[in-house]
Queue: 2 jobs
Job 1
Amino acid sequence: MTRTIACWKAVAGAVAGRAEGRSGADRLSAMTDVADTTLPAEPAIERTLVLVKPDGVRRGLSGEVLRRIEAKGYTLVAVELKQATTELLAAHYAEHEGKPFYQPLVDFMLSGPTLAVVAEGQGVIPGFRSLAGATNPTEAAPGTIRGDLGRDWGLKVQQNLVHGSDSPESAAREIGLWFPNL
Ligand code: IDP
Ligand code: MG
């Protein structure tokens, strides 16, 4: 569509040049100038992995999280309630192994079902992180999922309702772990 518009602009520019009495070479150059204008790259459609963690599922907030994803305009590609395993969580949270909250995090993630979601759209990876809010629900801004619906419960791990992939590489890896058939 954008390319078609640029092409018509070029033709219009050349026709205007003829009306103004410009030479053929000038008119050709006018066409080339416009046609060579770099077209804006179309942002790629990306996918992210969202998890409604066991606290969110237990509190009946799965629908509210899905509602916010859809209200923002993203598309749901896959939604499945799953019981995580130790192996899956070890792979998913490999970057946090050795940190003081690692084992409490794994135990928490094993404490009940998780709603695994793949959402799609331009900018959905940072877009969902923005919807989720800061990791610590006490600090997360009002208006975000963690800011509106989460709080400090005095536990070793922050029960902050949702997970969202933090980069295209993480998204590809995490979607492969939670939805190997996608
Ligand atoms: P993120 O979920 O916002 O990406 P990460 O740093 O990747 O945050 O941490 C993974 C999860 O581990 C968090 O969502 C939270 O549940 C828990 N967590 C992270 N940092 C802490 C901490 O300092 N204390 C307790 N729990 C934490
Ligand atoms: Mg993270």
Job 2
Amino acid sequence: MSFAALGLSEALVRAVADQGYTQPTPIQAQAIPAVLAGGDLLAGAQTGTGKTAGFTLPILQRLSQTQGAVNPFGGRPVRTLILTPTRELAAQVEESVRTYGKYLKLTSTVVFGGVGINPQISALKKGVDILVATPGRLLDLHQQRAVDFSKIEILVLDEADRMLDMGFIHDIKRILKVLPAKRQNLLFSATFSEEIKTLADGLLNKPAMIEVARRNSTVEMIKQVIHPVDREKKAALLIHLIKTYDWDQVLVFTRTKHGANRLAEHLNHAGISAMAIHGNKSQGARTRALSEFKETDLEVLVATDIAARGIDIEELPHVVNYDLPNVPEDYVHRIGRTGRAGATGEAVSLVCVDEKDFLRDIERLIKREIPSVVIPGFEPDPNAKAQPILMGRGQGQGQGRGQGQGRGNGGGGGGGGGNGQGRGQGQARQPAKQTTARAAPGRAPARPAGGGAKPGARPPAGAVHRTGGRGR
Ligand code: AMP
């Protein structure tokens, strides 16, 4: 099966070939014809499946086939709106729009919180065909009458389950209310909770349904292993693994921001270049860390779950769970960063006695036992007693204005942290006694001010990008 056989134009096929893709991935093979046909779509696909090209390519084709209107400022009103849960994902999706649309005359821009709003207002005034946005900032822009939704033809909700997890449902509903009723809707989600089904029922009209990976399944290609270890020896074990096996590009997950910072410092002291990314870092620092990591100038990126969402690094060889997540679905998302689009990868989890329940819940979810290998010199103390993992207050991993709706959970393992935007539970979780219930989303106020990021940090947002050629 070729991209041309899916009905894509020569300009798009050429752009895809430039990326070195020879064959559509399963989600692309199904989503591209469905979107080209013009109907609504409900797609079950995790990041790593090639879903971004799965919706971007047919959208570009549809928009390039018809002329958009001209708005009152003389620019073009937005014709496609793509909503994503995080800034990083928004930036990456817009980059894909530019990559695949490079031989077309369409324009795009990305808007998200944590960076100055004025460049975004100017970009929108000029007009763009495709707008990629996180919900909070988009509403701010709408309130300031900086964005015209009246000519939207296509709406995409990307990683819809993540958006709901992060408490964006009210923002999404507000956005839906002001969009034109007649439009094509595409909803992508890795999982299908009741909440997602309700959203889909209200949003989609007789959608085509596609599901490429088994729900909540781990990517088959990923080699998974657990290294049991005492909690105090985790950092030493990680350093040992990185040095012994010469890992040069490792994404490491911690439960908390504080834990991420501490671990990055630890690794740097050991001569391993590492940076932490999480919601308390400025957008500039996060963008810089990510690009250095992609270029492999940085060996280790230490991330919290929310900050890492949607991070796309091709063929990332190693993902390490320094702490197991307390939400088992997060394990699936974390390890999905490796073994992407056909590449093999390895997911290593360092598990201490405190995390036995988390491990049990994860194995139940993925319906398999993860092989366990004790590393010589790091044998765990068989008499070690489990300690409660503290569910600290305010663990919401806020991501800037409008994105402060963390889950109000996390904590423990790597220490406290959190920027106090989620409504944390402040309880201790006793391993081996309680089940790991998904904590209620710690919904922060709809409009928390700031998120730690500073305006003026070099924003990729706000610039209008022409996907190719001259503007119309
Ligand atoms: P996504 O699931 O959209 O985050 O994409 C995951 C990764 O797969 C990205 O790095 C893409 O560049 C890559 N990719 C997308 N489509 C293809 C394809 N047809 N063949 C190989 N790699 C692809």
